[in-house]
Amino acid sequence: MLATRFSKTSELVKVSIFRTYFSTLYCLGLWIPGTAKMNNSAKVALNNCYRKLFGIRNIVSMSELFVNHGLVTWGAMRRRAAYSLLTRVTDNSNVIIQALYHCNSFHLNPIFKEMCSVLY
Fold first, then answer.
1. Nearest Cα residue to 98 out of 90, 110, 107
2. Fewer CB atoms inside 10 Å of the end CB: C or N, the chain?
3. Residue 32 burial (CB < 10 Å; 0-12/13-18/19+)?
């Protein structure tokens, strides 16, 4: 619907629309432990939305197009979300959350390991 309604607008307007509707995935930090298939499907869906909105039909480097328009790629969104969630946990002043963070089982948890693999 957005692609058809805004097909004749400038690229600046399309970039603004993409940022508004597609670059704000709420709770993305909680998607981090998802499967590789789920993450790849979400990446493909984001790229397809971009292609549809900008009217791109041929196969080109999506990363280059995102960077040229000043947009964040799927990998960068995942890293940003993982970093945000991890810093909220580590910098929290809540005693219970701090106790859980300093517990040995937290660092052995698959969710924490996946967040670290996304970040590093």
1. 90
2. N
3. buried
Contact (Cβ atoms closer than 8 angstroms) between residue 106 and residue 78: no
Q: Map out the domains of the chain as residue ranges.
A: 2-119
Spatial separation of the C-alpha atoms in residues 115 and 81, rounded to whole Å: 9
Tell me how crowded residue 18 is: count the other CB atoms within 10 A of its CB. Answer: 19
Spacing of C-alpha 68 from chain mean position = 18
**Residue pair 27/85 in contact by the 8 Å Cβ criterion:** no
Q: How deeply is 56 buried, as exposed, middle or buried, from its count of CB atoms within 10 A (0-12, 13-18, 19+)?
A: middle
Q: Read off φ and ψ for residue 49, nearest 5 degrees.
A: -65, -40
pLDDT in tens, the chain (120 residues): 777 777 778 888 888 888 888 877 777 777 766 677 888 888 888 888 888 888 888 777 888 888 888 888 888 888 888 888 888 888 999 999 999 888 888 888 887 888 888 888
